[in-house]
């Protein structure tokens, strides 16, 4: 009896497991736990018979003085623990690295005889040849026996996973495929070489090739073994995510998706022929994600922490809001902006207008991509690259009133006709109303989506979170205005209420001129800063009043909502830091700080104005 093998775990496999667990804990969902347990169960059950066979046939062995003693089917318990910990570590690394990935956008509809068929067949053929060769090697015992045994065990699983998930294995970013294979493989090569040199485990000499990995002197079989086992784990996870992406993306095939899909449902999703995929849905999602990625660093980061169909709905909602705001903001004339407002209203009317009431009073809701009037209207009136995002706005899951209110908010901006003095924001209540329209509404819609996907909150609690969300939306809008004072001034806009400016003996026009100038006297700069701080004071007042309500939201959306709010309010915290200089007209939050803020928000309630 000895502790050498146990020591290998204590020194090399357990510390990374602890580190990865600490890093991933705030991001971990029930679905992630399900994936981890699923993968470990498959890894352990599929490896035990093979490993046991190898030990009983003396391909490798463990000196008595290196292991503690207890065995399962002749395998030392330390070795069984190895299957568990290796799968755990590689899985956590994969989950961590692929958190930002929205898997649905990597699905691809297949057409007859396109490149996908060739690729799938090529991979299958390659793996089938490997299986054939390894059987030949096993049949003639000798120096290729161990290599043959490794390949004959791993390749059929790889063949199966390739057949089910080849699209994702090829298309996913390398950070979700190659990196989580490469890092644990290189690490385990070093650990294995050290253990072999110490004699913790021994490979018999008659059944190995005698080839070594240059540099660390590791047997080729061991190098192949660790590479393939990590491939198996990552391929398995990719197939799992492929199945989830199919389930989440195609409601026509899978109307409802349980929070923890059964293995049978996952297999059914993987077996859906890629020719049956709805490519408009995939393209629409790709366009909405691209818009989110290009336009908002805060919400893009936050979107990665939401999951399933809620994440998809929020991304389409963001795209709709962004498209509407941009069409109006970038219009070449007030007349064009007015026309966009009319068109947006009409589009929303059409999008909601298709619900039909039957003679018995039953309501047939509009389908979420309206093949009827809304589609036709959008095709005739909106730019090509906005169509799919508009059409996939999740109208059946949200009220229409907030959307009309949002458009009313955009309409308020049209009042800035001649100069900044024509502002519609005369008093603080005017600014609150503007914030309620452009942001309170967005909060209402976001919360509605959350409550649709995670139902069960009582009516009173729902009302409470809606009211708090409304205030939080206004808080974000105040922050947005404080950040964009200079940018808005360049466009002749001033959102600071006239009543506030009056106290400083300023008008919107003089305030805008000061913001545009680089040569202000110190007292003018101080006045500008005072207005910015006043806006932020109100922003944080509203934030403090409403932030607690996030903890009343359904648990699966709580932490993600915290990230969305906190990563935006961080802009306000930066602006409030004494001595902070606004660069290029806009306050930005460095990436490392964004990630830290998001991580802290995921870990638990934040409640901080500083
Ligand atoms: C995670 C994810 C994808 C969320 C989507 C959130 C979403 C739909 C945002 C829409 C943003 C948008 C373009 C709205 C148009 C009107 C507008 C410009 C509003 C301002 C947003 C700023 O966005 P951005 O900085 O990108 O815009 P500009 O560069 O300035 O043009 C706003 C500041 C409003 C955003 C308001 C919210 C997202 C609501 C926040 C409140 C909650 C989520 C509720 C919290 C819950 C409780 C219970 C308190």
UniProtKB/TrEMBL annotation:
The keyword Endoplasmic reticulum does not apply. Its EC number is 2.5.1.32, 5.5.1.19. GO terms for molecular function: geranylgeranyl diphosphate synthase activity; intramolecular lyase activity; lycopene beta cyclase activity; squalene synthase [NAD(P)H] activity. Pfam families: SQS_PSY. It comes from the Eukaryota. It is a multi-pass membrane protein. CDD domains: Trans_IPPS_HH. Pathway: Carotenoid biosynthesis; beta-carotene biosynthesis; Carotenoid biosynthesis; phytoene biosynthesis; all-trans-phytoene from geranylgeranyl diphosphate: step 1/1. Coiled coil: none annotated. One of its GO terms (cellular component) is membrane. The chain crosses the membrane at residues 6-24, 36-55, 80-97, 144-165, 223-240. It catalyses: 2 (2E,6E,10E)-geranylgeranyl diphosphate = 15-cis-phytoene + 2 diphosphate; gamma-carotene = all-trans-beta-carotene; all-trans-lycopene = gamma-carotene. This is Bifunctional lycopene cyclase/phytoene synthase. It comes from Cladosporium halotolerans.
